[in-house]
Amino acid sequence: MTKENPVDSELKRSPDDTNEDSKRCKTEQSDEKSTETDTSTESPAEKKSEVNGSTEVKDSSQNTDRFVYPTKKKYAIMMGFCGDGYRGMALNVGVNTIEEELISALSKCNFIKQENARELGKMYFQRASRTDKGVSAARQVVSSNLNLGPDLKSAVVKLNEALPNDIVVYDIIKATKHFDSHKFASSRVYEYNCPSFAMAPTLGDTWSGYRITPQVLQNVRDFLLNFVGTKNYYNYTSNKSANDPSCFRYIRSITVSDPVVVEDIEYIRIFLHGDSFIYHQIRKIVGMTIAVMRNVAPSDHLEKSFQKERCDVPLAPGLGLVLDEVKMTRYNKKFGKDGMHTPLEWEAYEEKVQDFKLKHILGVIHRKEKAESTMFQWLQTLKKHKFYTGDVLPDILTGDSKSKDTTNSSKEESSKPAESSESAASLNLIENSSG
Predict the structure, then answer these.
(1) Are the C-beta atoms of 321 and 368 separated by less than 8 Å?
(2) How far, in Å, are 18, 65, 120, 153, 244 from residue 68 at the CA level?
(3) What is the pLDDT of residue 193?
(4) Rounded distance between C-alpha atoms, residue 224 and residue 226, angstroms
(5) By CB count within 10 A, which of 94, 166, 186, 319 is most buried?
(6) Which one is catalytic: 8, 16, 59, 132?
(7) 398 secondary structure, DSSP code
(8) Residues of the chain with CATH 3.30.70.660
(9) pLDDT the model gives residue 299
(10) What are phi and psi of 202, to 5 degrees?
C-alpha cells in the first residue's frame, strides 16, 4: 500500500477547509485585541476623578460610587485639643472622647477605610501619651497607617474642616514604616495652671484678689525640687502595690513661671518634664505642694509620702492640667537626619500652637475657674485629710492659733471661728470672681 505524501495531502485540501482556517485565525486575533482593549480602557459608563491621590470611580449605569483608596503608609499626626467636655483621649465606644472625633473625621475624609474605623489594630493607631477626663493637650502626636495621597497640606486642611473647633491638626508627616508614637516618645512635658491663692499661707488670703509674694513663689519653687529625680510614687497613684516597679518614675525638671494675671485671677504655671508619668501623679504632686505651702500638712509628710507605707496625699483638681508637649528626641536622632524622613519637631508650628492654646485651652481653664471656683471649692476639702495626729492642728484649719483642748466644750468653741472665717473667705471670693 502506497503512503500519501504530506505535502500532496495539503495540496489536495478543499477550498472550504482553507477558508475555515482563515476565519478561525481572524477570530482568535480579534479576541486578543478585545482582551487588550478591556485591560487598558474603562467602560463608557464609568468616569474617574483624582482627589488627593485617591480615585473615585463613578458608574452612571448603576448610579453608584466606588472609592479606590491610595496605598497605606505610616504617618505622624501633630495635633492639639481641649479636653473640656471629653472623657479622655482614648477611644471608648459610646463615650465622647478625642479619638472618637479624630477617627470619625479620618473616616469622613476617606483617609481610613470605613471598616477600620472601629479596629484600630488594623491601622496601627497609637497615641504618644494618654490623657484623662477633662485634660487638654497643646502638642500631642498620634501615629497611624493612613490612605493619603502626595498632597499632605490639602489633607491637613480637609481633616481640620471635618474636626470640631476644639481639636486641631497642625501637620501630618510621613514617618518610618514601624513608627510608634508611644514607643518613640522620649519624654513628656505637663503643665499645671494653678491660681496663686492656692499657695496662700493663711486662710484670709484665699481669694481671687490675692497676689503671690516673691518669697512664697520661691518657697513653691524650692519645694517642688524635692520631686526631681527618681522617686517611689506609690502614694501618688492608685490600684498599685507598694512593691510595683512601675511606681518608680523619673522627673527631669520642674519649673514655675512668674505669675500671670488673667482678668482678676493670678496664676502660676508649673511645668513638669519627665520620661513618663503614672496615673494621678502630677495632680497629687500639686496637691502635696499646696497642702504644705498652706501649712495644712507638716513638712515631714513629703518624705513619708515616698515610702512604701500608705499615707494621705491630696488630689488637686484636673482643670488646670495640660499635656504641653511630647518630645520625639529618640526618633529624630535616629531618622530625622537620614535625608529621607522629616524630624518630628514643634518649632515650625509654634505660632499655631500658642494661638490654639490661648483660645481653646488656657481660656477655657480660666472661664471655668472663674465661673465655678473650682480651686477654691477644692481647698475646702483639705481639712478632711489626715496629715496630723493628736489634738494640735494648724491655724489654717481652726481659724485660731490656740491649741485644742481635750474637753468637748472647748472643741465646740474652737470650731466656731473656723466656720466663720471660711464663710467670710468664700463670700469674698465669690464677690471678687463675679466682678
Answers:
(1) no
(2) 50, 10, 20, 20, 49
(3) 97
(4) 5
(5) 319
(6) 132
(7) H
(8) 187-384
(9) 82
(10) -125, 150
CA–CA gap between residue 32 and residue 60 (Å, rounded): 28
**132 is known as an active-site residue:** yes
| CA pair distance 281, 192, nearest whole angstrom | 12
404-435: pLDDT as tens digits: 333 333 333 333 333 333 333 333 333 333 33
The amino acid sitting at 408 is N
In CATH, 187-384 is 3.90.1150.10: no
- CATH 3.30.70.580 positions along the chain are 67-184
Instruction: List, in order, residues 6 or more apart from 291 with CB less than 8 Å away.
Output: 297, 301, 314, 382, 385, 387
List, in order, residues 6 or more apart from 134 with CB less than 8 Å away.
83, 84, 86, 318, 319, 321
User: CA 299 → CA 294, 296, 309, 375, 393, distances in Å?
Assistant: 11, 9, 17, 22, 14
- pTM of the predicted model as reported, rounded to 2 decimal places: 0.75
Cα maximum dimension of the chain: 146
Q: From the centroid of its chain, how far is CA 409?
A: 54
Of 97, 211, 64, nearest in space to 164 by CA: 97
The fold of the 67-184 domain, in CATH, is Alpha-Beta Plaits (3.30.70)
